[in-house]
Amino acid sequence: MSTQTLPYTVHPHPVTGIYSGKFGTWLFLASEVMLFGALFSSYVLLRVGAPEAPSPLHWPSHEETHLSWRIGGFNTLVLIVSSVTMVMAWASLKMGDFSKGRRYLWLTFLLALTFIVVKLSLEYVPKLRGGYVPAKSTFFSLYYTLTGLHGLHVIGGMVVIGYFLGPGAALWKRDPEYYTNRIECTGLYWHFVDLVWIFLFPVLYLM
Amino acid sequence: MSGSHADVSKHVRAYVAVFIALAIGTIVTVAAAQVHIPHPMNYVVAMLIALFKASLVAAIFMHLKWERAANIWILLALCAVFFAALMLLPSLTTFDLPKQAQRIGAWG
Amino acid sequence: MSSHDHHTQGHGSGAHHELSFWRHYVFSTDHKVIGVQYGITALCFLFLGFCLMMMMRWQLAYPGQPMPVIGKFFGEAAMPGGIMLPEFYNSLGAMHGTIMVFLGVVPLLVGAFGNYVMPLQIGAPDMAFPKLNMASYWVFAVGGIVMLVSFFVPGGAANSGWTSYAPLSVIATMGQTLWLIGMVFLITSSLLGSVNFIVTIIQLRAKGLSMFRLPFFVWAQLVTAFLLLLAFPPLEAAGVMQLMDRVAGTSFFMPEGLVVSGVPSTVAGGGSPLLWQHLFWFLAHPEVYVLILPALGIVAEIIANNTRKPLWGYRPMVYSAIFLGFMSFIVWAHHMFMTGMGPTISTFFATTTMIISIPSVIILTALVISLYRASIRFTVPMLFALAFLPMFAIGGLTGLPLGLPASDIPLHDTYYVIGHFHYVVAPGTIFGIFAGIYYWYPKVTGRKMNDVLGKIHFWLSFVFINMVFGPMFVQGLAGVSRRLYSQVGYAHGEAVQSWTITSSWGAWLLGLAQIFFIVNFFMSMRAGKKVSDNPWEATTLEWAAPSPPPHGNFTTPPVVYRPPYEYSVPGLAKDYFPQHAAAEA
Ligand code: HEM
Ligand SMILES: [Cu+2]
After folding, report:
1. What percent of chain C has pLDDT over 90?
2. What are the helix and strand counts (H, E) for chain C?
3. Cα distance between residue C14 and residue C29, in whole Å
4. Cα→Cα distances C450→C47, C60, C78, C394, Å
5. pLDDT of B1 over the 60 cut
6. Would you say residue C65 lies in a domain?
7. Measured between alpha carbons, how far is residue C95 from residues A169, A197, C148, C277, C485 in Å?
8. In chain B, at which end, N or C, are there fewer CB atoms within 10 A of the end residue's CB?
9. pLDDT, tens digit, for every residue of C275-325?
10. Which residues of A touch B16 (CB under 8 A)?
11. Is B45 helix (H, G, I), strand (E, B) or coil?
12. Minimum-distance ligand to the CA of C328?
């Protein structure tokens, strides 16, 4: 169907200096900044508005939330490593080494999976069982909404990476540069997901 | 972005360096939380570290350091302004109200 | 290149054709097909939104009386004995607003006109991301279906207004949950669309088409896309939070100590209803510029074409549009003067609101000056475009008192507000849309719509739409609240009830007047006069393509030599000089 040639899908536009996919990805990320920005701003508003300690509505300290910084910290490291493997995947493809790039992509995928499994099995499930449900307090409302949305982003990233490991990989044979570009765009998104977590971790686990 | 092999292999060293910096940053964040800085300074410290880590990710992993396309920079500037507007929103609601009304529930 | 592809693809085998129907008309990636899909869907929603309103107008004019003919079809839960229940009235009002804004006008202006016309005007073979374009249409369609389904759940559709203010919306019936889910789809669709629009405009312009040679319509689409891109996500976040409040029992927007119908609420509390309002209006103020900017773009195209002169002040108009887009992000709290914000904040937002009116006035003034000493062609699109100008002016000017806290306090949430913004979106934007349909119909179909029917449609619409919205100012100044089931029974309301009845009759007559449009629209597809590729003798690139344009749009990629509106250039034989013509033919 769309074999029709659109310009600048692979090569950068002579004036703007980027190819369309990358520009599109950045635009999408800009909207993501606003999405998480709104959530952070809600956090600040609710935090500032919370009453002082004796009130039942006071903001819980991290001793009261029973969120473990060890688990949170572990997941932080997992995401940071996955960012490195992601960018290495792109660098390897850029240097023409498909099988190395693929290995790094697999690593990224598995690290993302680790993140999700840890999140669910060590945090969500025990917390929910222990009565720390979203409705418990404004803090837990925020905790579940923020980490939940972030988790969905991680899963979204896994779907994309999975696609480029599976059916999407055929593109490498047809047009290696195009494939590399798409991995670059995936990487931009993936680093953004990491970047959001860098802010979420201290705000939710350490304050 | 320019993409010769030599360039890319130079990048790889930067990636490793950033990884180490991010790991250290994470440890510092956790450590800072253990020394019980009084509220709200604890947020300020944590956010500063997070900002530092995030800039590293954006500059190196997301290649902004090597990015020459003006589009992206204009976009990011625009985004920063509106993000700031969003972040003003909480203070906007409270700062010039009478003291007793500053608690959200009091007029909600 | 693209034309070549078109040829090799067009003559497939028979088996190929089987697949083709679906790929060509349903799951197409061609921006023109998608534009038409958006257009048809959104026109249906516009009609639905209008029907909901015509029903409400019965209740307002003749409260408590059974609705003739159609009343008995709605069942006991909505209209027992044909008499509208207050809850049903609220649903109709909320859904009228939602459908008109998110499923009618924006999809028409952006999804239909933007999608169809913009790539043609910049000389591109398609959108930058054709598959994404298809995805945004289908996500939009799902959102629309969710909204429609919500009418049939227990308790009916959402009934907390199109603004969905908490805590009312959090304790509302199930329709509200579907409303939120529908909104998340619609927002996602808009985001995908806006990314596509921006990339297309920046990356795919034809050779020689610099930014300041773009038709004003394209500029309007560019600014609009930025507004959608950056303003919608906060509402998406807020929507997710409200969904959590409703489904998971959280209390983002729920204060403590809330008592609902005498029963203390069990939510933990600690949330802030004001937070919702901030996040909502952070989107919704830019959204009103989304509703008007593309319409201004359409009107600008048509005025330049029918005055046979370059637009007066093209550059100031472009700068104004950009400034308008930027400012629209920092005026949102003028909708919240009544919420008890402090005076300092109110002053700040009143000031930004006064500032933002300046660029709108510049654009409008430039358009009016463009008419000066022109030999105007009074075509049907031009009539709508001309009527747009004073209507938009009334809408804009009546908004100023609402932007100042002192005068907003008595006017807030009265029919004055309804009158004000409808002058902007109904005789304003909707007239812009009609103008656009009459203007670009020949491009899409190769035929012109009937002139006589078009003129009848215009004059009747013009008279009746003022009959609908003019009286609302009177009602509002008399103090009648909006979202009111019936003003009868209040002394101040009864005093102006005759105005309400006038307004209702205006609405029904306006509905009847649309028959001329509907008949014309369908009839002209087969019986309309066949016209050339450039029937309006216009200069912009969309007219350089065949009508209707083939897949890939242009037979040869166009090259642009000059600014967009070179009409009546001295010394030329013809009074228009197309952008793509190297020299006069
Ligand atoms: C042309 C025919 C139209 C008529 C007769 C009409 C009439 C009305 C009336 C009478 C109300 C107030 C209902 C109440 O407060 O109880 C209303 C509300 C509203 N209308 Fe329209 N309208 C029309 C077109 C539009 C269009 C084209 C748009 C949007 C682009 C629109 C958007 C809205 C919105 C957002 C509300 C507020 C709903 C709420 O209170 O939550 N209307 N309309
Ligand atoms: Cu506004």
Report:
1. 84
2. 19, 4
3. 21
4. 21, 36, 41, 30
5. no
6. yes
7. 45, 37, 9, 19, 15
8. N
9. 999 999 999 999 999 999 999 999 999 999 999 999 999 999 999 999 999
10. 84
11. helix
12. 2
User: Rounded CA gap, C367 and C390, in Å?
Assistant: 11
Res B2 pLDDT > 60: no
- C29·A1 Cβ contact <8 A: yes
B100: contact with A, CB 8 A cutoff: no
- Within 199-228 of C, beta carbons closer than 8 Å to A belong to 199, 202-204
pLDDT at C523: 96
Domain ranges, residue C421: 4-253+271-544
pLDDT tens-digit map of A113-142: 999 999 999 999 999 999 999 999 999 999
Find chains touching chain C: ≥3 CB pairs under 8 Å. A, B
Segment A71-77 long-range contacts (CB within 8 Å, at least 24 positions apart): A71/A118, A71/A122, A71/A123, A72/A201, A72/A204, A72/A205, A72/A206, A73/A201, A73/A205, A73/B26, A73/B30, A74/A118, A75/A115, A75/A118, A75/A119, A75/A197, A75/A201, A76/A197, A76/A198, A76/A201, A76/B26, A77/B23, A77/B26
pLDDT by residue for chain A (207 residues), tens digit each?
A: 334 578 898 899 988 889 999 999 999 999 999 999 999 999 988 888 888 878 888 888 878 888 999 999 999 999 999 999 999 999 999 999 999 999 999 999 999 999 999 999 999 999 999 999 999 999 999 999 999 999 999 999 999 999 999 999 999 999 999 999 999 999 999 999 999 999 999 999 988
Please identify, by atom number, the ligand 1 atom nearest to the C-alpha of residue C469: 5
Alpha-carbon gap, residue C155 to C152, rounded angstroms:
8
Q: What is the CATH number of the domain that holds A160?
A: 1.20.120.80
Could you tell me if residue C558 is inside a domain? no
Structural domains counted in chain A: 1
Please indicate whether residue C422, judged by its CB atom, sits closer than 6 Å to ligand 1: yes
CB C8 within 8 A of CB C563: no
Token pair, residue C377, equals: 């062609």
Residues C225 and C287: their CA atoms lie apart, in Å, by: 11
Q: Nearest C-alpha to atom 37 of ligand 1 is from which residue?
A: C97
What CA–CA distance (Å, rounded) separates C113 from A92?
Answer: 43
The pLDDT > 70 percentage for chain C reads: 96
The answer to whether residue A175 is domain-embedded is: yes
Q: How far apart are CA B64 and CA C370, in angstroms?
A: 45
Residue A34: what residue type?
M
At C243 the three-state DSSP class reads: helix
- Cα separation, C547 vs B95, in Å, equals 59
- Do C267 and A136 lie within an 8 Å CB cutoff? no
Q: How far apart are CA C399 and CA C331, in angstroms?
A: 13
CA–CA separation, B29 and B9 (whole Å): 31
The enclosing domain of C234 has a CATH number of 1.20.210.10
DSSP letter for each residue of chain A: -TTS--TTSSSPPTTT-S-HHHHHHHHHHHHHHHHHHHHHHHHHHHHHHPPPTTSTTSPPPHHHHT--HHHHHHHHHHHHHHHHHHHHHHHHHHTT-HHHHHHHHHHHHHHHHHHHHHIIIIIIHHHHHTT--GGG-HHHHHHHHHHHHHHHHHHHHHHHHHHHHTGGGHHHHH-HHHHHHHHHHHHHHHHHHHHHHHHHHIIIII-
Q: Whose CA is nearest to atom 27 of ligand 1?
A: C426
For atom 28 of ligand 1, the residue with the nearest CA is C100
Checking if the pLDDT of B87 tops 90, the result is no
Nearest by CB to residue B108, choosing from C272, C279, C282, is C272
Residue C75 is predicted with a pLDDT of 86
Would C583 be classed as within a structural domain?
A: no
Mean pLDDT of chain B, nearest integer: 81
Indicate whether C506 belongs to any domain.
yes
Nearest-angstrom CA–CA distance, A60 and C397: 50
